[in-house]
Write the structure tokens for this entry.
Amino acid sequence: MTIEPLLKALSEALHGEGPAVQIAPDGTFTLIPQTGLGLPTDSDTDIAAVVLTSGSTGTPKRTMLSVEALAASSVGTAMALRGEGQWLLALPMNYVAGLQVLVRSLFAGTRPWTMDLSGGFTPEAFTEAAQELTDNTRFTSLVPTQLTRLLTNPTAETLTVLRRFNAILLGGGPINPVLLEAARGAGLNIVTTYGMSETCGGAVYDGVPLDGVQLAIRDGRVLLGGDVVAAGYLENAELTAASFFTEEHDGELVRWYETGDLGELDSDGRLRVLGRVDDVIITGGLKVSAGAVTDGLHRVQGVREAFVVPVPSQEWGQQVAAMVVGSCSLAELLAGAGAVMEPQLVPKTVVFVSELPLLGNGKPDRTAILATLTEAAHAL
């Protein structure tokens, strides 16, 4: 499928000369007139794109991204990556990370190369697409599962194309530190990103906010502010009011988005995301962070990926459960987890799989994982 009509529509929207663009999962798109977006009649905000949130933690929402927000994000990214170049699109276009590859390309005046995802993401298809890039400066965005697949018994051709990228943005979920170390050890320039649809995608790179992005921690919760923040949710004024607000910061009015994540700043002032606010597991009266358990499991030898959720328990109220992709046995996993975590953090239910079930954007399918682990816990 050619993306030229989509690029033309996006270009017109980004120049404030056309309706907003909403991309469907199959790559087709619809145009939404500015008058149909529910903005105040006196608003001078031009919406360029409407994107679905991933839905990984609930019902997907349609997020309205303005021309100003996308431009600010694109400029911030170019500054962080020290230049503009050609992008390889390896993620679905209907989610913000995929959309941003197209938007950054349009702002840079370069033509993106789109990977064929009709057969799913495979190292072979990625390698073939990456070999078609012609610009000397090259970028791509991946989620951890994709990078894991690329670095599991990689061919020389795959490593060669990966090393030719000036930067590989990696985000969309918890990143196994072993994976990150292996990637950088193989000569890949990995830049970790944190953000969401409501912030035009990644707004914090390697723990540092992009230029123009404000970062705050309040009551343990991460807040992001600045020009990259979305205009709100289409046809959901109540949720918009609950998630976005404007207040003075350093003498200026700043638009903020209150994320659903817990975080802290390390000794260098870099953001460390601790997990979702709603991922706290209360087991036997103790509060356990699913993010802390995931971090611990990632340190166990042989674990490539892990996803942790609470499942109901008659004895404990909730219990810690994990779906794991790895080469270790259950006994090795539990022994390794016990060596790096406190006893209450060690999962009581573990299901090994060859691959985590994924949503269309490459993120783990929390609903499917929860159903599998709940069934496994009840069978014990």
Q: What stands out?
A: The chain has a mean pLDDT of 92. DSSP finds eleven helices and 22 strands in the chain. Residues 373 and 379 are 10 Å apart (CA to CA). The first helix runs from residue 4 to 14.
